Amino acid sequence: MPAPSKATDAEILALIREGLGNHRIARELHCDASRVRRLRKAHGLPNAVQQPLPLEEKWRAYTRPVDGGHLEWTGPRAGSTGTPQMRHGKDRYSGAAVAFRIHHGRPPRGYVIADCGYPHCVAPEHVLDETGRWQKRLEVREARGLGPIPEQCPAGHDMSRYARLEPDGIAYCQECKRLDKRAARGECEPRSGRPASLEEAFRRHTEPVDGGHVRWTGPTPKGLPTFWFARRPHTAYRVAFRLEHGRDPDGLVKPGCDMPQCVAGPHLEDRPMRKRTDSLFTAIFGDVA
Ligand SMILES: [Zn+2]
Ligand SMILES: [Zn+2]
Ligand SMILES: [Zn+2]
Questions:
Q1: Where is this region: Disordered (predicted)?
Q2: Rounded to whole angstroms, how far apart are CA atoms 24 and 241?
Q3: Which residue in 5, 118, 231, 281 has a CA-CA distance of 20 to 30 Å to 182?
Q4: pLDDT at position 4
């Protein structure tokens, strides 16, 4: 139970007459909102009318003109991407999407981003939606004489569905791009230039470093060096161990050296090897545990 409020009815009524809402009064006077509501009713006082700033006005308050006709966003941004974002009522809006509505008087199609080169610019004349981007880049493509967009990408995807254009008018396949991103995250096999053997696939993601260690440059889903070969994932530790010892490891394999995620064959240990190291340690230094 919250501590009983020391606010008097007179104090609460004074704030009601000032036009504050029930919850605001409850917060300021540390009392129950239901008590404010009851008092309001008992005295026949109307509910406070919330006057939220219109979306566009709120948006303007978050912007600042900068050189070159760009508009800088001074308001809140989304987590890791830094994308201008604002709340209005219960909804979230991207700063660029509101800019688009202001300029075009209609909701955007697809995501909105400025095409002017100024990072996260929200100038209404600089932002484009998917349709606008396509139109503008198609014009660039035509002006450069790059010819019609191919019907298929080199991997055979239907370009009438997957073609997208770079700002310089160069066409690319969105499906290939998506697959490449998945491969980079270690979720599937790389699309092109398939390695001939498991060893070759493993070596592609390795880099020797000082001290005989080998750094893993490939994907590490859940912190585990992993790569794809022949349609299934392999953990780099097990593969490196097998290449070094010519046998399958027994139990968990991990580096016994001091470099995290080292995949140097001679540095990897399976369970029996770790046991041996431990007993050797005990023999030399005694059982410290
Ligand atoms: Zn701009
Ligand atoms: Zn493709
Ligand atoms: Zn090592």
A1: 70-89
A2: 65
A3: 118
A4: 59
- How far apart are the CA of 172 and the centre of ligand 2, in A? 8
Q: Residue 268: which H helix or E strand, with range?
A: strand 268-269
Ramachandran angles phi, psi of 85, nearest 5°: -145, 140
Cα-to-centroid distance, 143 and ligand 1 (Å): 22
The predicted pLDDT at position 197 comes to: 87
Q: Which ligand is nearest to the CA of 171?
A: 2
How far away, in angstroms, is 118 Cα from ligand 1 center?
5
Task: State in Å: Cα 146 to ligand 3 middle.
Answer: 50
Residues lower than pLDDT 50 in the chain: 1-2, 289
In the reported structure, the alpha carbon of residue 262 is separated from the centroid of ligand 3 by a whole-number distance in angstroms of 5
* pLDDT attached to residue 287: 62
Structure tokens at 101: 């509505």
CATH 1.10.10 residue ranges of the chain are 1-51
